[in-house]
């Protein structure tokens, strides 16, 4: 039996999100900015993928198009088996609420609610019954994120790292098909960052979560299974299980 190449292995996995011929142009004519140019991409389920690239290379635009927060000017995006172009604004909002989770640099927690109430909020929006049924999963999320003894604290009583862990738990509570994380450690010191990345990776390993994380930091990308490197709106490389050396070589412009 032959050993499958990394590409074959990637294709054989379940795909959480894919883009075909994805383009996003801002402005027109001589003012046109081609933020994404004809991007083809498959993001495997149950893995953590980092999206890297220089400033202006299209990372945020790619994430926003994959998450249905921005409308492509060409091509298609399929997430959790649904082609997003077929959904109107209301359907998109519902789709995001049911199938996607978001973690941003700013923690966006509600200050008057406890950590537990913040985590449960998206579930309460989907109804009491759903919230009750989801409780075993929420308990697993709370344990994976090490928040059991912080549940009754308000955000102001938590460290930045702990607040971000609450924000991640809130994103995971609804069992989203994908959690999109945009520079999730941007506001944290290096110790808290390492802890957050470790917890994100544990959510992939232990809960089967799919995570797509935009980052500038090689140290952060090193926690991911796979790394997509963008340059000038195109995919320069899609590295599967890269070593840090391979990643550094690719970012420097080499071919490793
Ligand atoms: N709403 C917009 N209107 C006009 N141009 C935009 C808009 N959003 C993004 N762009 C342009 O599209 C290109 C890609 O931007 P994008 O924010 O996706 O890059 P990025 O890789 O996330 O950058 P950074 O690392 O600096 O956040 C840039 O040239 C940017 O100026």
TrEMBL record:
Pfam families: ABC_tran
Annotated InterPro entries: AAA+_ATPase, ABC_transporter-like_ATP-bd, ABC_transporter-like_CS, ABC_transpr_LolD-like, MacB-like_ATP-bd, P-loop_NTPase
SUPFAM superfamilies membership: P-loop containing nucleoside triphosphate hydrolases
Keywords (A to Z) from UniProt: ATP-binding, Nucleotide-binding, Transport
Keyword Cell wall biogenesis/degradation: no
Chain spans, region Disordered: 1-22
UniProt keyword ATP-binding present: yes
Gene Ontology molecular function, alphabetical: ATP binding
Domain ABC transporter, residue spans: 17-256
Biased composition (Polar residues): 1-17
Protein name: ABC transporter ATP-binding protein
Organism expressing this protein natively: Nocardioides plantarum
């Amino acid at each position: 039996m032959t050993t499958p190449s990394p590409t074959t292995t990637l294709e054989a996995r379940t795909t959480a999100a894919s883009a075909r011929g994805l383009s996003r142009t801002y402005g027109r004519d001589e003012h046109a900015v081609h933020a994404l140019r004809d991007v083809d991409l498959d993001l495997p389920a149950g893995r953590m993928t980092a999206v890297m690239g220089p400033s202006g290379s299209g990372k945020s635009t790619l994430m926003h198009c994959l998450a249905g927060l921005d409308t492509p000017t060409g091509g298609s995006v399929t997430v959790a088996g649904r082609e997003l172009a077929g959904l109107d604004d209301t359907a998109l909002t519902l789709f995001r609420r049911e199938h996607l989770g978001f973690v941003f640099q700013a923690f966006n927690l509600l200050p008057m609610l406890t950590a537990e109430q913040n985590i449960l909020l998206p579930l309460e929006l989907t109804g009491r019954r759903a919230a009750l049924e989801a409780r075993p999963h929420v308990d697993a999320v709370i344990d994976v994120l090490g928040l059991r003894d912080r549940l009754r604290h308000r955000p102001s009583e938590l460290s930045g790292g702990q607040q971000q862990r609450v924000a991640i738990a809130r994103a995971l509570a609804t069992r989203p098909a994908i959690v999109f994380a945009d520079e999730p450690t941007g506001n944290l010191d290096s110790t808290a960052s390492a802890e957050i990345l470790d917890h994100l990776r544990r959510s992939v390993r232990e809960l089967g979560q799919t995570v797509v994380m935009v980052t500038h930091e090689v140290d952060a990308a090193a926690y991911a299974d796979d790394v997509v490197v963008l340059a000038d709106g195109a995919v320069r490389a899609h590295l599967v299980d890269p070593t840090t050396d391979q990643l550094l070589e690719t970012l420097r412009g080499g071919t490793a």
